[in-house]
Amino acid sequence: MHFYGTQQVNEQGNLMIGGVDTVELAKQYGTPLFVYDTALIRKRARGFIDTFEKLGVTAQVAYASKAFACVAVYQLAAQENLSLDVVSGGELFTAIKAGFPAERIHFHGNNKSIAELELAFDTKIGCIVVDNFYEITVIKEIAQRKNQKMNVLLRVTPGVEAHTHDFITTGQADSKFGFDLNNGQADEAFKLVVNDEFINLLGLHCHIGSQIFETEGFSLAAGKVMQKMGVWKQEHGFEATVLNLGGGFGIRYTAEDKPLEPHEYVADMIKTVQAESEKLSLTMPEIWIEPGRSLVGDAGTSLYTIGSQKTVPGLREYIAVDGGMSDNIRPALYDAKYEAVIANKANNAKTSTYTVAGKLCESGDKLIIDAALQKVETGDILAMFCTGAYGYSMASNYNRVPRPAVVFVENGEHQLAIQRESYENLVVNDLPLTLKKGE
């Protein structure tokens, strides 16, 4: 059985995380419940940061908070000296509410609204990652009107396709994100911003995909982007000070996944950038990266209570849990694979095979197909591993199911990070009908 971070089994045979009994957490906070091992998040963050420091390279490690955003996780990121990648006004607002240092916030997105960009200026964030020509026009107008300068990076698509799921690949030429590096769009964007009195162009940004297990794609992308920087220096006398190589570092969901350690990704990136800088006679830029899933993914565990069971003779054994695609859409959306254990029988051998079904009114609401588990009884607690990224952040109220609670655990202590939604929460924005029925 593969355990993550501080997970272990106690004398009673119960799964422990952060020195806390998950069965007791389920009793106290109810299920479904997201449990985050904050010590593991800290370890992952330090793995990235320490590698840059040991190699003497100036860098920013920005948490890509679309993976999981809330006040508490932003405060945890600040404690670990991370920067922050936000992609909406809501994430930016939450970060400000959390007291996150605005100068370390980077704002992404392919269709930032005028109101969102106004908020970015008003809160004096550190950088806007510019995604398209419309955005350049809007940023210029806001900056001139407010008489306020703004740091920007130009997001480019380097034409490097990562080996990952089609739905989450973003670095290839056919992408809704960024300026194409190969068809002249990036050059046109550069000319629009490089001499603007209110825009401070720091450099370039690229992101080639997600759940990547090798370094070759990052090195290829870095090389292509650095070559463009070399052209701009030669032709325009501009030298970029920042190269943002995005995120996408993979994690282990099942035994089939073979991720690298943070220092391996970082070391290869640095090697490529240093080599290209020397070859092109460029000053070594500050390197920014944006890990999201690789910081919080395997630190999150979902706890569910098992309810009904169904046997389809000769085909399948179903067990149903009190959550499903409303708190983890990834299996239905991406055919994502997970592993699990019965938290109150974690010492027992996995002798049975079940398909774990959710409670939502969809035939595709299956969390794990053919899960190897201990013998199950109604009332058991299922612990599903590696749900810390894109679980709660993509959760919905489909079927009017309240979103789960989120608990942080560390050193034998636990705290509620997000309260469970109530039925009252579900109707708080609903308004009564006032239209009169026709004759």
From TrEMBL:
Q: In which pathway does it act?
A: Amino-acid biosynthesis; L-lysine biosynthesis via DAP pathway; L-lysine from DL-2,6-diaminopimelate: step 1/1
User: MF terms per GO, please?
Assistant: diaminopimelate decarboxylase activity
What is this enzyme's catalytic activity, as reactions? meso-2,6-diaminopimelate + H(+) = L-lysine + CO2
Give TM segment ranges.
none
Q: Which InterPro entries does the record match to this protein?
A: Ala_racemase/Decarboxylase_C (IPR009006), DAP_deCOOHase_LysA (IPR002986), De-COase2_C (IPR022643), De-COase2_N (IPR022644), Orn/DAP/Arg_de-COase (IPR000183), PLP-binding_barrel (IPR029066)
The residues that hold substrate are R293, R330, Y334, E362, Y390
Cite the Gene3D superfamilies for this sequence.
Alanine racemase (3.20.20.10), Lyase, Ornithine Decarboxylase, Chain A, domain 1 (2.40.37.10)
Q: Which residues form the Orn/DAP/Arg decarboxylase 2 N-terminal domain?
A: 41-296
Enzyme Commission (EC) number? 4.1.1.20
Q: Which UniProt keywords apply?
A: Amino-acid biosynthesis, Decarboxylase, Lyase, Lysine biosynthesis, Pyridoxal phosphate
| CDD domains in the cross-refs | PLPDE_III_DapDC
> Transit peptide: present as a keyword of the record?
no
The record lists pyridoxal 5'-phosphate as bound by G248, E290, P291, G292, R293, Y390
Cofactor(s) the record lists: pyridoxal 5'-phosphate
Orn/DAP/Arg decarboxylase 2 C-terminal domain: residues covered: 35-388
- Enzyme class comes to lyase
Q: Which residues carry this modification: N6-(pyridoxal phosphate)lysine?
A: K66
Check the record and name the PANTHER family matching this protein: DIAMINOPIMELATE DECARBOXYLASE, GROUP IV DECARBOXYLASE
Q: What does this protein do?
A: Specifically catalyzes the decarboxylation of meso-diaminopimelate (meso-DAP) to L-lysine.
- Family membership: Belongs to the Orn/Lys/Arg decarboxylase class-II family. LysA subfamily.
Q: Quaternary state and partners of this protein?
A: Homodimer.
Q: Which HAMAP family match?
A: LysA (MF_02120)
Record-given protein name: Diaminopimelate decarboxylase
- Whose protein is this, by species? Solibacillus palustris
